[in-house]
Design brief:
The chain has 792 residues and is an alpha+beta fold. The radius of gyration is 40 Å and the shape is extended.
């Protein structure tokens, strides 16, 4: 439950950061004395003639101009207050905008090689964890996510982590009353500063970059790094807590294709970038116009994802990066116009308060106990000592039921009212009594009539022999002294003598109905799993059935290794056999056990699919019969309404044929539900069996690849070396390659510690995360290179 505490409206803060160059045009770019304005002066183009109305000067009023500013000064000016207020419950957004190569990524992320040159994003993470250490009275959790928008498609930059993996479905932008969120985007809990830096560096290595004439490492996508903060009070028992998020947006730079010389893929990326930035500017113009009712947020993924940030309930800051060169003045003017338009946008920052449901329940229980105590005191002062506000027990409910029955019979004139809970229970018992009477009436009707199924020829033959039907199959009514039945009475029947049925309705009804409970979901099926292998086997009887959770546990156990001892291995051939031939040998030798399990699982899967197909056919047949019975029943109802309806003591009288159709329809529906439940259980089993088959197939192929490399590629002397206590499995990575993976990185880290730590003691977590990320990616590169060599 989210309840934002409304605040006052405020303007978006816009700053300009000028990229330092050797040829700064002081006569064309001038700064104001207050360091909050920037003037652009151009010379008139004489080629336009004498009459020339070309504008030559522009002045832009902003919140600050950062020229030759260090990373520390940029963060203190732009982001520190936004991050600080985020821990108080205010959302924040910091966005870097500008042309390609103007320094947006350097401002946002910085240079990861040098701790002093880190940007806004790593500094914001450090500030968040520093403030958490200072606020000991609150339990604060931090989560992060990293989104990339590339060519109008959404990508999770942290999906390469082993515990995340790629998503099977594409990510989408979803809106709800709480705001906008990305469905499918992974959000990661970080308990310390180093973990957050590791996630940042992991995402940075996955970004799409390219090179053109204006930037060797140009970002080809928009990236949004989000920090989610949730704060609970440790001292107060209040159920309220606050949440906030900080969006750190690094936009791709706008490009003039004539200057960048982009071609091919880079040209396509530039088209998407310019298009999305154009839509962003349209949304900003609409937000700055107070008369506009509709804001075009859905024109592109960028504006849709930032809908909460652009003009929402957050603190927003824009950093416009521009070139300090005369050749780029046209793009500089465009960027400054965007910053001026952004200053017209107003936001309404508000504290995001939520309510903890568990703590709210506890507080309500305490309040309820206090109210009961106060009510008991009030009743004792008013001499109402017999009033009880606790839930009623079985004895009290039975007494109310007795009072209701006596009231309906007329032996009790009125029921005394004590409290509201007793009134509710009285009405409930009225409902119970009514339901019991309906059941009694239905059972009386069943005892009064003899019912059979007209489609059951065996039952019809039996009743003909008993004299209950003639040779044409017409049923005989049974006189009961109150009404009459329809049918042709046989000649052997005498008045006053009742014909007794030899079989009851349940004995005569021959429609096969499965017993309920014969197929409970996943626990009473004919499936079992060996405790030591991932295998499905048929049990000797229906009672020996195990739970599916036991099977899932056993399915994760390793397969047995049936490889012969090294001494018995045949000599290696000079030329490796082809993989199809080697695969057949592997299935007959080392992989025989896995192959056997795979075949048995597949046969059981096929058997379950066959049973599901048969069940589906039975369901379709029952459905057709239900439709036929409904049509016949509608015909009977129409005929009865046409001939006139008869009532006896308020009850509708129907003929025996219509009654038989009603019962038949009821039994068919019951059978349909049972069959459909069986089909659902079979489908669940099929899905589980398919999972086991796929698992066996994957294991079989993996074991074959390892066996093939061990048997035909790795030198025998290296295998002997690997056997001597090494944790690396043969066939995967050469031992000399693995040992050397982390040595260079460790040396680099030692050098960094000697040079950087004395100057910046707070940089330990920064460099730790950087070295670990580099080690991981170097290891992955080595694995990939070895796999490519093996393929060749």
């Amino acid at each position: 439950m989210l309840r934002p505490r409304m605040g006052t409206r405020k303007k978006v803060h816009a700053f300009v950061r000028v990229k330092p160059t050797d040829n700064f045009p002081h006569e064309m770019i001038r700064y104001g004395d207050d360091n909050k304005s920037i003037d652009i002066l151009l010379k008139k183009d004489t080629r336009r003639g004498v009459v020339n109305n070309q504008q030559t000067d522009w002045s832009f009023k902003l919140d600050g101009v950062l020229h030759d500013a260090s990373q520390d000064l940029v963060y203190e000016t732009v982001a520190k207050d936004v991050v600080s207020q985020a821990l108080d419950g205010y959302n924040g957004t910091i966005m870097c905008y500008g042309q390609t190569g103007a320094g947006k990524t350097y401002t946002m992320t910085g240079a990861t090689e040098n701790y002093k040159h880190r940007g806004i994003l790593p500094r914001a993470l450090q500030q968040v964890f520093r403030m958490i250490e200072e606020r000991t009275t609150h339990a604060i959790t931090v989560r992060v996510s990293y989104l990339e928008i590339y060519n109008e498609s959404l990508f999770d930059l942290l999906s390469t982590l082993p515990y995340v993996g790629p998503s099977a479905t594409p990510m989408t932008i979803v809106e709800n009353p709480q705001g906008v969120f990305i469905k499918g985007l992974s959000v990661h809990l970080t308990s310390q500063e180093e973990d957050a830096f590791s996630l940042l560096f992991e995402g940075e290595t996955n970004r799409v970059i390219a090179s053109h004439t204006m930037n060797k490492n140009s970002s080809r996508s928009h990236c949004i790094f989000t920090i989610y903060v949730e704060s609970h009070s440790r001292t107060l028992s209040d159920e309220k807590y606050i949440t906030s998020k900080i969006n750190l947006v690094d936009l791709a730079g706008s490009e003039r294709l004539g200057k960048t010389g982009s071609e091919g893929r880079v040209l396509k990326e530039a088209t998407y970038i310019n298009k999305s930035l154009s839509f962003l500017e349209q949304a900003i113009i609409a937000l700055g116009d107070q008369k506009r009712d509709h804001i075009p947020f859905r024109q592109c993924k960028l504006t849709h994802a930032l809908k909460d940030s652009l003009g929402g309930n957050c603190n927003m800051v824009l950093v416009t990066n521009i070139y300090g060169e005369a050749a780029q003045l046209e793009e500089t003017l465009s960027s400054l116009r965007f910053a001026s338009r952004m200053k017209l946008v107003t936001t309404e920052p508000a504290i995001n308060e939520k309510y903890d449901a568990e703590r709210m329940v506890k507080n309500l229980e305490k309040e309820l106990a206090l109210l009961k105590q106060e009510l008991a005191i009030h009743d004792s002062l008013a001499n109402r000592t017999l009033v009880n506000y606790d839930p009623m027990d079985e004895v009290q409910i039975a007494e109310i039921n007795s009072q209701v029955r006596r009231y309906l019979e007329g032996t009790l004139d009125e029921i005394d009212i004590i409290n509201l809970r007793q009134i509710q229970e009285v009405f409930n018992q009225f409902r119970v009594v009514l339901s019991q009477q309906e059941q009694e009436i239905e059972s009386a009707l069943r005892r009064k009539y003899t019912l059979i199924d007209k489609n059951d020829f065996a039952a019809i033959s039996a009743v003909q022999k008993a004299g209950l039907a003639d040779v044409n199959g017409h049923l005989v009514g049974e006189p009961d002294g109150q009404g009459f039945g329809l049918g042709v009475i046989p000649f052997s029947f005498k008045p006053g003598k009742k014909i007794k049925s030899k079989k009851t309705f349940k004995d005569q009804l021959s429609i096969p109905v499965r017993k309920e409970g014969a197929s409970s979901p996943l626990s009473t099926k004919e499936l079992d799993i060996s405790p030591s292998k991932t295998q499905l086997i048929l049990p000797p009887r229906d009672g020996d059935v195990k739970d599916m959770r036991d099977r899932e546990t056993s399915s994760t156990e390793p397969f047995p290794s049936d490889s012969p001892k090294e001494e018995l291995r045949p000599p290696r051939p000079s030329t490796p056999p082809s993989k199809p031939v080697a695969f057949e040998d592997f299935k007959n030798e080392r992989g025989s056990e896995i192959n056997r399990i795979f075949k048995e699982n597949k046969s059981i899967l096929n058997e379950r699919r066959k049973r599901a197909s048969e069940t589906t056919q039975r369901i379709n047949a029952i459905k057709q019969e239900i439709d036929t019975t409904k049509e016949a029943l509608n015909v009977q109802k129409a005929l009865r309404e046409k001939q006139g309806e008869y009532e006896n003591k308020g009850l509708m009288i129907i003929d025996e044929e219509e009654f038989l159709l009603i019962l038949k329809l009821k039994d068919l529906k019951k059978q349909y539900r049972a069959e459909y439940q069986d089909l659902r259980d079979l489908r669940a089993e099929i899905q589980y069996c398919q999972h086991l088959v796929d698992q066996c197939r994957h294991r079989l192929l993996t074991e074959f690849d390892i066996w093939y490399n061990e048997s035909f590629f790795i030198p025998e002397d290296l295998q002997v070396a690997l056997k001597s206590g090494c944790s690396i499995r043969p066939g995967m990575v050469p031992i000399n390659r693995v040992v050397s993976l982390g040595e260079d990185d460790q040396d680099k880290f030692s050098q960094l510690q000697q040079t950087m730590l004395p100057e910046g003691p707070e940089s330990v977590s920064f460099y730790n995360a950087k070295v670990k990320t580099e080690q991981k990616h170097n290891y992955l590169k080595a694995i990939t290179g070895l796999q490519q060599v093996n393929k060749k």
